[in-house]
Design goal:
Enzyme class: transferase
Subcellular location: Cytoplasm
Radius of gyration: 21 Å
Bound molecules: iron/sulfur cluster, zinc ion
Number of helices: 14
Order of helices and strands: EEHEHEHEHHHEHHEEHHHEEHHH
Strand order of the largest sheet: 5-4-3-6-8-7
EC number: 2.7.7.-
Number of strands: 10
Family: Belongs to the TtcA family. CTU1/NCS6/ATPBD3 subfamily.
Distance between the termini: 55 Å
Main location: cytoplasm
Length: 343
């Protein structure tokens, strides 16, 4: 028997909301989803009227839904924001080149300005070239560190006040689990925050308007709205650790849908005992970007690539930073260790 929409009772329900279990028609689902994002934005005071906001856009479902919903809400509730799209081109043939075509179409569909910054122009290396040198084991470390900085640099070029990213509830719950499993309390504290304030020069505040949106609902929203997005996975995505955390979380979700929110709440409520040593944020003495070490991670990874020592930025080699800065040569033994990569 057809089920009626539990919200309007006029239309036939076309879906059961993964987050609440309610049976809804398409229109009522759109309203429920958009209103939740609106409430998140208002409750956390994510934006101020007149701000320039860069939407980190990859062409994937999350950032496409984010761009769409931000545009809808900005108009519906007169946020007074100047929205623009900001994309990073990692230089991955057969993946990012195609997804950037999607972003370019989104730019026209949503009539928003678009800026693309590339690893090649910023660092002189594409991910294709990096994978050739480092293999498929640590490639995502390079990519993640470079992306974080590339977004900041793009945001500065665009002169935006804030960047918003498409991180959803599932992403955040996964990150909470990973940080617990790794014992990374500094990151655990930061990863549930809905917004980061400026942490120093060269860092643009970031926020996550989809923090409480379930991935399954984002997919449904994109599907029913017929949004134009790119759904292929990165060709270099072995990132096994996150994959296990994701599978574990999906298993939990299938037994109890609230698991995703429960894990996020756990992350939010865990506090750090007084006296626990936390890293102190300073700035990189080479590029000026935020760093808790003398050299930031991006500069160390780049130095490793340029010297043909790809392992330099992987693992802990902080004691070598002084040598790198003063251009002192490394010993043969040090070089040998840093050259070896397991493919
Ligand atoms: Fe970069 Fe890894 Fe993501 Fe591919 S999967 S885009 S290499 S971080
Ligand atoms: Zn640096």
């Amino acid at each position: 028997m057809p089920v009626q929409c539990s919200s309007c009772s006029n239309n036939r329900a076309v879906l059961r909301r993964p987050k609440t279990g309610h049976s809804l028609c398409k229109e009522c689902f759109f309203v429920a989803f958009e209103e939740e994002v609106h409430r998140t934005i208002v409750a956390a005071e994510l934006f101020k009227p007149g701000e320039r906001v860069g939407i980190a856009a990859s062409g994937g479902k999350d950032s496409t839904v984010l761009a769409h919903v931000m545009k809808v809400l900005n108009e519906r509730y007169s946020y007074g924001l100047e929205l623009m799209l900001l994309s990073v081109d990692e230089g991955i043939t057969g993946y990012r080149d195609d997804s950037l075509e999607t972003v370019k179409r989104n730019q026209e569909q949503y009539e928003l300005p678009l800026k693309i910054v590339s690893y090649e122009e910023l660092y002189g290396w594409t991910m294709d070239a990096i994978v050739k040198q480092v293999g498929l084991k640590n490639n995502c470390t390079f990519c993640g560190v470079f992306r974080r900085q590339a977004l900041d640099r793009g945001a500065i070029m665009l002169k935006v006040d804030k960047i918003c990213t498409g991180h959803n509830a599932d992403d955040i719950a996964e990150t909470v689990l990973m940080n617990i499993l790794r014992g990374d309390i500094a990151r655990l504290r930061r990863c549930t925050a809905i917004s980061t304030s400026s942490e120093g020069d060269g860092v643009v505040p970031r926020c996550k308007p989809l923090k409480y949106a379930y991935e399954k609902e984002i997919v449904l929203y994109a599907y029913f709205k017929k949004l134009d997005y790119f759904s292929t996975e990165c060709i270099y995505s072995p990132n096994a650790y996150r994959g296990y955390a994701r599978t574990f979380l999906k298993d939990l979700e299938s037994i109890r849908p609230s698991s995703i929110m429960d894990v996020i709440h756990s992350g939010e409520n865990l506090s750090v005992r007084d006296g626990v040593k936390m890293p102190v944020q300073g700035t990189c003495s080479r590029c000026g970007y935020i760093s808790s070490q003398t050299l930031c991670k991006a500069c160390v990874l780049l130095e490793g690539l340029n010297r043909g020592l790809p392992k330099l930025g992987i693992g802990k080699h902080h004691r070598l930073h002084g040598k790198l800065l003063s251009q002192e040569p490394l010993t043969e033994k040090e070089e040998r260790k840093l050259k070896a990569v397991e493919f």
